[in-house]
Design goal:
465 residues; 6-stranded mixed sheet; NE0471 N-terminal domain-like; binds N-oxalylglycine; alpha+beta; binds zinc ion; disordered N terminus; single chain
């Protein structure tokens, strides 16, 4: 936690240059560094990008700790021209210099007071308790402060809150503003077979050494749900080498990582040389793994062993448009996935019930659960509805395989295929197991929380937000 509040300086030119971009690691605002050449010491690097934390979480003033001490800088030109209680509603109306006006409910402002007794500026956590919040909370006075740099609220009980302009502006309640929070997530780019030539790629060494390369890769991966890391060493353990640059490997009942090869006692059909139909990994777990990594250590030189990837969420959007009632059946009928067996001495019997298409709180497709191999005989429907459910499933399966939503790629040795297991389905064609047909992948999982977190940190550290 403490580290997050310290000045972050990444390689680059001198801080003496005026107009370089920096940003507050808390409020995330990028802003030009307006320091004069004499106010800051020369730092040892070139092309410096500076980030710090607004003094006391006040984005109106940027506090940067340097060897020379503390320097304060003005924030960008987000100036409040007026702020006053809305005449009819329980909210404050704020007018901005550029003409826009935004509204902030009183109860929300009180809940988000940034003063040291309400918000811990080191732990970055709310101290103010919900049980102390009143729906009827009202200000006795609202004023523009700091020459338009803040809104100062005096509450009826005498408590004072000060909201920096930039802080308020970033938190506007308009739909447009809330959609534009690119730091939250990278917008998805849907695809089909056209992506086979152009899907995001980066070399293993560049991801280990170069923050910019890692940011580009993670951003593209988040947008497309698929990425390829090339030229990793051809031996096991490389997922453990890459992981610290991004996030922890998330274990499953197959271990921290697992080895996909033809085995005499397969605990999973992927451990045979047969076809592995389009699927997401481990829907039998109540929370399936979110991102899958497959490192190709040995690829078969024979035919087969090729992967198919499908943009499941794109396919579901097309399916919904063309077949709304089949879509409805697949998103409301719970089925069961069951994974039972023993892998390297660990015995398991994992079961979860869920629909094939899972919707989120907005009614949009959140994830697809397809796994023919571990789909059990249980279907949460009346006998007379079962045939219609199979019809819907088969028809959706055709959309998933449609080149409008899918492409094939045969991994080369040294490739690490990274796939969004929430959005994509993947499969593998059969291959010859003996002789030159030998094939070996090491697989593992990441969590989206950590991958998106790394992307956000890199955006902030490299001054991209
Ligand atoms: C898996 C899998 C694909 C392959 O192990 O989950 O889908 O290429 N493997 O062997
Ligand atoms: Zn307060
Ligand atoms: Zn798989």
């Amino acid at each position: 936690m403490q580290a997050a509040r310290q000045l972050v300086v990444r390689g680059g030119s001198s801080l003496r240059s005026v107009g370089r971009i920096g940003g507050c690691v808390e409020c995330r605002a990028g802003f030009p560094i307006l320091a004069s050449s004499s106010s800051l010491p020369r730092l040892p690097h070139t092309n410096t990008i500076v980030q710090g934390v607004c003094a006391g979480r006040r984005c109106g003033e940027m506090q940067v700790n340097t060897k020379a001490g503390v320097s304060r800088r003005p924030s960008p030109s987000l100036t409040v021209t007026s702020a006053h209680p809305h005449p009819h509603l329980p909210m404050i109306q704020v007018s901005w210099e550029e003409g826009e006006s935004t509204e902030y409910p009183y109860v929300w402002l009180r809940d988000n007071c940034q003063c040291p007794s309400c918000f811990h500026s080191v732990a970055l956590a709310r101290i103010f308790r919900l049980s102390d919040l009143q729906l009827s909370v009202r200000p006795s006075q609202v004023q523009v402060g700091d020459g338009g740099g803040s809104v100062e609220v005096t509450w009826q009980d005498g408590h004072l809150s000060s909201f920096p302009s930039a802080w308020l502006h970033q938190r506007a309640f308009s739909e447009d503003h809330q959609r534009q929070q690119e730091i939250y997530s990278v917008p998805r780019v849907f695809w089909g077979s056209e992506l086979s030539e152009t899907f995001p790629k980066a070399s293993f060494t560049s991801l280990l050494k170069d923050d910019q390369a890692l940011l580009d890769f993670l951003t593209q991966f988040e947008a497309h749900g698929v990425g390829l890391v090339s030229d990793a060493p051809r031996n096991t353990g490389q997922l453990h080498v890459l992981a610290p640059r991004v996030g922890h490997l998330v274990p499953s009942h197959y271990g921290d990582t697992f080895h996909v090869m033809t085995k005499s006692d397969p605990s999973n059909l992927a451990y045979t040389s047969g076809t592995v139909d389009l699927h997401c990994d481990l829907p039998s777990r109540s929370a399936k793994p979110e991102i899958q990594l497959l490192h190709c250590i040995i690829q078969t030189t024979e035919e087969g062993g090729e992967n198919i990837l499908s943009d499941g969420i794109h396919a579901a959007a097309r399916f919904k448009k063309d077949h709304p009632s089949k879509f409805h059946l697949l998103s409301t009928t719970p089925i069961e996935f069951c994974d039972r067996g023993n892998d390297e001495g660990y015995e398991f019997h994992i079961v979860a019930r869920k629909p094939v298409i899972v919707l989120d709180y907005r009614g949009e497709v959140k994830t697809i659960n397809m796994h023919t191999m571990s789909r059990s005989s249980y279907i949460g429907a009346k006998a007379e509805d079962v045939e219609a459910w199979y019809d819907a499933l088969m028809s959706f399966n055709a959309y998933l395989h449609d080149p409008k939503n899918s492409f094939c790629y045969k991994m080369k040795e040294g490739d690490i295929l990274v796939m969004d297991n929430i959005r994509l389905l993947h499969g593998r064609s059969a291959y010859k197991a003996a002789g030159t047909g030998k094939r070996h992948l090491e697989g593992g999982y990441w969590a989206w929380a950590e991958v998106a977190s790394k992307r956000r940190l890199l955006q902030q550290n490299l001054g991209r937000v």
